[in-house]
Amino acid sequence: MPSLRALFQAGHQVRLVVTQPDRPGHRLRVTQPPVKLAAEELDLEVFQPEKIRTPESVARLRSASPELMVVVAYGQIIPRSVLEIPPRGIVNVHGSLLPRHRGAAPINHAILAGDTVTGVTVMCLDELLDHGPVLAARKTEIGPDEDAAALGERLAVMGAELLVDVLGRFDELRPVEQDHAAATLAPKLSRTDGELEWDLSADEIDRRVRALQPWPGVTLPLYSTRVKVLRGRPLRGSGQPGEVLAAGSRGVEVAAGRGSYLLEEVQPPGRRPMSPRTLVKSRA
After folding, report:
1. N or C: which end of the chain has fewer CB within 10 A?
2. Distance between CA atoms of 6 and 270, rounded to whole angstroms?
3. Contact (CB, 8 A) for 48 and 20
4. Separation between Cα atoms, residue 117 and residue 94, nearest integer Å
5. What are the structural domains of the chain?
6. What is the pLDDT of residue 265?
7. Is 172's pLDDT higher than 70?
8. HSE-CB of 91 using CA atoms within 13 angstroms
9. Burial (0-12, 13-18, 19+ Cβ within 10 Å), 6
10. In the predicted model, what is the mean pLDDT of the chain?
């Protein structure tokens, strides 16, 4: 969404905005993609195909006669039939410093990997996954307490700024081939990625809690239930993994496989977010 607004405000002619179809959301209420809402606010035409590669979708894109296309977190592989439409090609804004973290979840995987620096890349799209030559990149540090949601918001703004800069100098830039031997993958997340046990190190638990926000989130056992961990931080306590070491105003400290982890906010099944101390007291 920041990229769409930035393009519009920079004076670029946006002929068509392509985004995902409306989907059932909370309590099955139909939810419109944020990009669609932004496009309608800007009075731009919107196209929401179920699949971008169908002949009907390709024909619709061709009818818009785009000189250049921009892809930002679209969620579908762009086929050759679409790549061939714009005479000046397709550029993609990607949330990592390519070739590191190619794939659907680069922001999450940067935190999971313990990276201290990440960034955004504007590249030329080809038929392979995040494989095309790079036009420009911009770095930023990952904060020690920053989660994927907060980092994603920052990178979206950075990516929008870099995209406008790249398009303003498009004819001057020379694409640089990626070092494909150095590529790493950032595959789509699954619910099982967040189903953790206390035998992991406290630092690993912390990375996963931050990386898997807002979805799928992390769950850990606490007494006889599993709680969703919304906020916490690693400490240097010791004990048997899963042992409650302390419960106070700061939260509940639990021993991990190495070190300990301070639970600061949790959400038990079917309940609202709460202090873990409240849950510990109710189980005592």
Report:
1. C
2. 40
3. yes
4. 15
5. 2-182 (3.40.50.170), 191-283 (3.10.25.10)
6. 96
7. yes
8. 24
9. buried
10. 95
